[in-house]
Design goal:
This protein is of the alpha/beta class and 262 residues long. It has a single domain, classed as Dihydrofolate Reductase, subunit A (3-Layer(aba) Sandwich), CATH 3.40.430.10. Helix content is 26%, strand content 21%. The chain has eight helices and nine strands. A nine-stranded mixed beta sheet has the order 5-4-3-2-6-1-7-9-8, sandwiched between helices. The radius of gyration is 19 Å and the shape is globular. It starts with 25 loop residues before the first helix and ends with a strand. 39% of the residues are buried. Bound molecules: NADP nicotinamide-adenine-dinucleotide phosphate (NAP). NADP nicotinamide-adenine-dinucleotide phosphate (NAP) binds next to β1, β2, α3 and α8.
Length: 262
Amino acid sequence: MQRVHIATYLTSDSGQSGTDTGEVTGDALRELYAYPVEMPRPWVRANFVCSIDGAVSVGGVSGTLGTPADKKVFDTLREAADVVLVGAGTVRAENYGGVRIDADGRQRRIASGLSAVPPIAVVSARAHLDADARLFTDTEVAPIVITCAAADPVRVAALVEAGAHVIRTGGSEITGPEVIAAVEGLGLRRILCEGGPSLFGQLVADDLVDELCLTTAPVLVGGTAGRIATSPHVATVSMTPAHVLADTDGTVLTRWVRLPRP
Ligand SMILES: NC(=O)c1ccc[n+]([C@@H]2O[C@H](COP(=O)([O-])OP(=O)(O)OC[C@H]3O[C@@H](n4cnc5c(N)ncnc54)[C@H](OP(=O)(O)O)[C@@H]3O)[C@@H](O)[C@H]2O)c1
């Protein structure tokens, strides 16, 4: 066993003085979270924040768990993605709007061959989304809705009317491989899954997760909030740490990558 030295800071107000604060910013941070250069198949990265005691939300939303360092990484991950994949429960709970990328980020994306702004792709078996919600009204690019044949056609029509690109799979459920195939079919292969626990649990159960970026916020919250993955099926997926970062406020940010498949 070894002690891990992680004196790395992510925010500019780290309070450190001297010439080498160990601060990670800008290009260095983007490099730490770059997608692999070679991607023979889509790369599924998930990003979550939780409390030290494992809660994924406080009062039904995750916002209060966020810290300045978590926000930096959150934005860095969005900038690198082709698509932000999210379950309908999270969209409803968090009132998701479209992704925002600042001017410098757009330039970097376009220079790398990406679109200026990644779309949000929502998974909803029931197509149960409010057509007047921010997902449709506060976005620069059309959201994608992945639903299934059993979804109410009236609801689906309302989402199309609201501007969504709707993809319907067969049957009454949507499997993990169908979710990934839906976005890959649009040429979107750098996948950033922002949850929630049900969608992530399914991707874990289907062994489709390549990477987990997990922020531990320096708080205990108790309560009844669940963990980051929930699924009726248990899976054991071995991961290896790619890096561990810490901020001066106690935020710990880990990046875990799936061990190569045999
Ligand atoms: N701390 C964090 O980083 C973080 C991140 C994300 C979310 N959260 C929290 O997690 C909570 C929401 O949890 P959740 O488990 O309800 O979130 P979720 O996974 O976003 O949503 C579940 C819903 O998404 C749809 N869905 C997900 N997977 C599906 C699949 N494979 N096939 C068909 N539909 C699928 C279904 O929608 P329909 O019912 O419409 O069919 C299902 O009811 C919120 O409190 C949120 O704040 C926390």
